[in-house]
Amino acid sequence: MPKVEHQLYGDRKVFSVSAFNRGIGMHLGRLPPVWVEGEVTELRRNEAWANVFLTLKDPRTGACLSVTIARRTYDRLELDLAEGETVHVAGRAEVYELKGELGLRATTVERIGLGDHLVALERLKRELAAQGLFAVERKRSLPRVPRAVGILTGADAAARGDLVATIGARFPATTIVVREARVQGKGAARAIVAALTDLTAREDVDVVVLARGGGSFEDLLPFSDEAVVRAVAAARVPVVSAVGHQQDTPLCDLAADARAATPTAAGALVVPDLRELEAALEATRRRLGLALRARVERDRNRLARQGERLRTAPRLLVERRRAALDRSGARLQTLSPLATLGRGYAIVRAGGALLRAADQARPGDLIDVQLAAGALDATVREVHAEGSPA
Length: 390
What we know:
The protein has 10 helices and 16 strands. The protein is of the alpha/beta class. It starts with 6 loop residues before the first strand and ends in an 11-residue tail after the last strand.
């Protein structure tokens, strides 16, 4: 076994930090393989990585142990592990020399069963879903331009900084109301409910964001507490959940009106982008201008047509009236007695009265005969009654 190098200072042997960690690692390497039981948390796998990383946690004491296993070995096991499951891991103890961290280099993993927390969460999830708290139809739309955005986060949380920066950059006019609360550990659930109640009590707050950065399965448990989930579902205003990372799904995510993968994404959800709004307004203004000019042009053309019709209407009316008079005159001419006289007939009067029958006159009576051209005076010599021989 190689020796760990040291330096002599008189009778004192002094090891560098690297040498010390290396020596500890060598001693640990001589220990036999061991089996370790714990709940799976912080499981991280990526196709580009050679190893899969996870943390084993003792649910009774909270003690944690980092575990590394070759990705190919993990994939062959086909375990598809989930956060909170209890497993047995076989491997050797090792020390990460750069940081002096104790870990376990695993060779295999065996599933034992769901951890107590996961079992309880699954039961609570089913109960709340059956009560309709996660129903899609009860989720509300986020306000387009909120007067104020409430942010519920932990003290000195990076998530708060990301949210405030994003909202301020996108829509500076929106008021930001921050409420800090304990977001992990004992009493966190009560603190979250109290802060949420305080935020939604403000009349100007139109939407609330629950924000917390990533953490272990246990760290995020307060956001799956039944009281927190019910408070989110019953909130006066829409709630956006931005808790944990993309792969984390605390129960408040299911009850919230919207979920954001990151605080930055939550900021983009709750307020519009001022630049985009201004661009949209400018585009609308241009469209309105074009529409107005088109309307004015249409009205101008319509008025021009109407003006032309008004100018030509009297002439057309006169022409129509003249034509009507001509037709009436023609009809009157046809019905006129003069037209009858023109066809060879005559009008006979006796004493100024029209004679319509021969027996109205007697021999010797003077009569007037009106012709188409001129008139005659005559004396009746004989009267031939109707039906008598001529």
